[in-house]
Write a structure and sequence with these properties.
This protein has 189 residues and is an alpha/beta fold. It has a single domain, classed as 3-Layer(aba) Sandwich (Rossmann fold). The chain contains 5 helices and 12 strands. The strands form 3 sheets. An 8-stranded mixed sheet has the order 6-3-2-1-7-10-11-12. A two-stranded antiparallel sheet has the order 4-5. It is globular, with a radius of gyration of 16 Å.
Length: 189
């Protein structure tokens, strides 16, 4: 089987070929089935990543609250911080943190999301994802699903063209509950 390192290189190459799908993702917001008041863990897209910004804005208009992750340290789960509901309107910016990932201010309240939007390089038809190799989302999902017994849902955000026949799965890899692409939401669990 191909190594995860080689799969990541190929996935990055394929991902660059996809157009912007932010508006298409936003059109599928209702499919997430979130009630007003739900807290959604989003992310600030890296270059070439499927950008959830318009989806997050749409979820705000539906009464959801948005939290962004902060990297707490190597080997630790992500910390999520609630951003003000008028975050986008105020033009408040996230600041570059570890690994160049934009993070919320530490002064924003810490919160546990009910739904976690997860970036990825590739996914398969069983809900496995290929991430960037740092393990942050796997540790976060493990902590929230297994250790805390919290019913968080994890939805991968990507392009339909990022699907692959299969991915190598290690014991620490946490599967997604679904994937949202420009084609809509597909549930795995």
């Amino acid at each position: 089987m191909i190594s995860k390192t080689d799969l990541r290189k190929e996935a990055r190459r394929r991902r660059k070929a996809h157009p912007d799908i932010a508006a298409a993702l936003a059109r599928h917001a209702a499919a997430l089935g979130l009630a007003p008041g739900a807290v959604v863990g989003g992310y600030h897209a890296l270059p070439d990543e499927a950008d959830p910004a318009l989806l997050l804005k749409e979820l705000l208009t539906r009464g959801c609250h948005i939290a962004f992750p902060r990297i707490a340290g190597a080997g630790k789960p992500l910390d999520f911080h609630l951003v003000p509901d008028d975050f986008y309107a105020r033009g408040e910016v996230l600041r570059p943190g570890a690994f160049g990932v934009h993070e919320p201010g530490a002064h924003w309240p810490s919160v546990t999301p009910q739904l976690l939007l997860v970036p990825l390089l590739a996914f398969d038809n069983e809900g496995h994802r290929l991430g960037y190799g740092g393990g942050f989302y796997d540790r976060t999902l493990f902590a929230l699903k297994k250790e805390a017994g919290f019913g968080i849902r994890a939805i991968g955000i990507g392009f339909s063209g990022q699907e692959t026949a299969s991915l190598p799965v290690a014991a620490h890899d946490m599967a997604l509950d679904g994937i949202l692409t420009e084609q809509g939401l597909r549930a795995f669990r």
